[in-house]
Amino acid sequence: MATVEQVRAAALRLPRTEEHLIRDRVKFRVGRIVYLALSPDETTLGFAFPREERAALLAAEPDRYLPPVPSDERYNWLRLRLAAFDEAELTEIVEEAWRMAVPKKLAASVLMPVGPTLAELRAAAEVFAGYGAVDTGWERWAAETAPAADLADPAHRAALHRWLNSWGCRIRYPRPGEPDLMADGLAGWWQRHAAALPAVSLLKLTDQQIDRLADAYAELQALPVGPTRTLGPTAAAKALYALRPTAVMPWDAAIAKRLHGARDGAAFARHLRCGRAWAGAVLAESGLTEQRLPAELGRGSVPLAKVLDDYLYVTITAAG
């Protein structure tokens, strides 16, 4: 059974939320927008909810949800019986209601996006595999850098440049007589960060390891690769994936914008935390290991981190 104190705790941890007592009712709002309101007897909770989805939810779970009072029917609003919910369910409802009251960029910076179900991951994997020869570049990179990538090796730095361009990064190759800014920059970056890059799976990343990857990403994306260009956020994320494929879920501009509203180091850390949580959820649903699940989805040549990225590409980038 959810309690008023749990409502209060869930709401007040969210940015910009204020608690007010208005006409004997406790309400939580952002600015002038109320997104939660307790009934006077504190047995029901009104909350922001899409009006177009209200009827379906009321029909599906009439014992848990209540329609708005008549004066609130024109709003995006619904009510629930606190006794019918546990704390985890309540927290999710509070967060989704708050999301409706704040700018999308703020919501993305605070709340973890919902990850795919196993069925959704499978469907996306089938679509991605249908693009044709999707792993050719990856297989070439892996062969050229076997048994492990080492950017202290000039040949591996050149291979990374070619692989990034095969993924559409369009990084110019130096002309004859020009310094190779990318190769030189990668050599220095590798010397500073290689020892700290975790060689573990996405699921097993610790918060400290995620922070290290985010620091490495932030420096890498600012690396000069030409007279007027840096490596950039997309290529930096892909490069980190190439170097630590089991640990890093990459992104592109569309994915970063949709999920996180930013492409800096802090956003990349959030992205990896999302990947870690999503990996745990789909593995729990499937009952398989992190090594076996990609093969079961028809993507046996890549790690789960890439399968999750495939899902994001299909559902965000390719969907426009």
Principal-axes shape call: elongated
- Report the end-to-end length measured between terminal Cα atoms: 42 Å
> How many whole angstroms does the radius of gyration measure?
24 Å
**How many domains in all?**
2
Strand content: 5-15%
Biggest beta sheet summary: 6 strands, antiparallel
**Global mean pLDDT:** 94
Order of strands in the sheet with the most strands? 1-2-3-4-6-5
- SS class: alpha+beta
How much helix is in the residues? 40-55%
Number of continuous helical runs: 14
Q: How many extended strands?
A: 8
User: What order do the helices and strands follow?
Assistant: HEEEEHEEHHHHHHHEEHHHHH
Residue runs with pLDDT of under 50 for 5 or more positions: none
Keywords: DNA-binding
Protein name: MmcQ/YjbR family DNA-binding protein
GO molecular function, one term: DNA binding
Pfam families: YjbR
Per-chain topology:
Blueprint: H1 4-12, E1 17-22, E2 25-30, E3 33-38, E4 44-48, H2 54-60, E5 65-66, E6 77-81, H3 87-99, H4 104-110, H5 118-129, H6 136-144, H7 154-166, H8 181-193, H9 207-221, E7 224-226, E8 229-230, H10 233-243, H11 253-260, H12 265-286, H13 293-296, H14 304-317
Antiparallel strand pairs: 1-2, 2-3, 3-4, 4-6, 5-6, 7-8
Structural notes for this entry:
By secondary structure, this protein is α+β, with helices and mostly antiparallel strands. It has two domains: 4-107, Aspartate Aminotransferase, domain 1, CATH 3.90.1150.30; 118-317. It contains 14 helices and eight strands. The strands form two sheets. The protein has a six-stranded antiparallel β-sheet with strand order 1-2-3-4-6-5, with helices on one face. The protein has a two-stranded antiparallel ribbon with strand order 7-8. A hairpin with a 5-residue loop joins strand 3 (33-38) and strand 4 (44-48). Keywords: DNA-binding. GO terms for molecular function: DNA binding. This is MmcQ/YjbR family DNA-binding protein. It holds the Pfam family YjbR.
